[in-house]
Batch of 4 targets.
Target 1
Amino acid sequence: QVQLVESGGGLVQAGGSLRLACSASGRTFSTYRMGWYRQAPGKEREFVAAIRWSGGITGYADSVRGRFTVSGDNAKNTVALQMNSLKPEDTAIYYCYAKFTSGDEYWGRGTQVTVSS
């Protein structure tokens, strides 16, 4: 089994910054990608950012590119999301995920990010 635990959410004013962190434990030796999704009230869960361990390749949603930065440590199975220039529309529950070479995916329980205008 794999457990993912997020931290770092909270309330911030528009234009501010937050840093989310996620740590994976358990059977993690075959992860190949970790990242973040988010879900705002009344909306579907959407991709935010991810990092692939091979080559350190990162990917971002258009809505966050240039403001958010994803980073991670393969050896420690951790991933972080630095969020700058936050906007009210970034308000959502942010979920960490880990994808394995087997195709299995695991998710954290989420952390709330609220951006006030």
Target 2
Amino acid sequence: QVQLVESGGTLVQPGGSLRLSCAASGSSFTLSAMGWYRQAPGKQRELVALITSSGSTNYAYSVKGRFTISIVNARNTVYLQMNSLKPEDTAVYYCNLSTRDRGDYWGQGTQVTVSS
């Protein structure tokens, strides 16, 4: 089994910054991609950012230019740097791990609230 542990969510003012972290541990795996998704109340879960094992990235249009996803392969850890945060970024953020040999995994979620 693989476990994902997320951290970094908190209350932040509009215009502020946060960095989310997600570390994978447990059984060994072959990484395909890691990503961040978010779900706001009453809305469906949506992709925020994705990074593949080769370093290719993909961002939701709403966060392009404000968020940056990065990965430290040796630590199986993915980060999401979020700048210029807006109230509409408020959501529970979930980490996702996609492997080539052990399926997909989700973290427990971390709450990000952007409010003055």
Target 3
Amino acid sequence: VQLQAFGGGLVQPGGSLRLSCTASESITSMNVMGWYRQAPGKAREWVANVISGGSIAYADSVKGRFTISGDNAKNTMTLQMNNLKPEDTAVYYCNVVRWTPRLSSWGQGTQVTVSS
């Protein structure tokens, strides 16, 4: 499955952005849908995910500010980011995982820059 992420940009601290990730085929069979990010000079880190069955989890650094959601009918997942901070600056990647048969796909990344 091919993923395309978009919605990044430049925003001031305290602002909001909404990232979207569209899949080339149905995501209903996916077990995990998630977002990761990679800041310059740092390793890629997990941000949030939704596990089949509805369980949602967030990294402590974004909890209370970011909201992940999915729309199976549109083969899309989103990441609503509010109260953005300079430390949120990174390239954001979407990811889907299916456990059986095993599959893991990544989007191409979208840049988010939080700066005044």
Target 4
Amino acid sequence: QVQLVESGVGLVQPGGSLILSCAASGSAVSPYGMNWYRQPPGKQREFVARINTIGDTTYTDPVKGRFTISRDNAKNTVYLQMNSLKPEDTALYYCNRDRGLGPWPWGRGTQVTVSS
């Protein structure tokens, strides 16, 4: 059974930075494209960023130039560096592999709150 554990919960002021981690157990992440998603309060879960197996990245427009996704296959972990945070980035953040293969069981997510 694959388990995903997101961490990096934080309350940060607008303009601040935070790094999130997603640690996987039960399967290696190295063969898969990995993604970060977020679910703002009262809204559906949405795509944030993706990193493929060779390190190419894609981002949703609202976070381009501010967020950076990365992976450390040796640690079986995916990261999301978030800079210049805005109140609209407030959400529960999740990670998972590419959907085409069927998602792994979702983790609990990690809460990010951007507020002054």
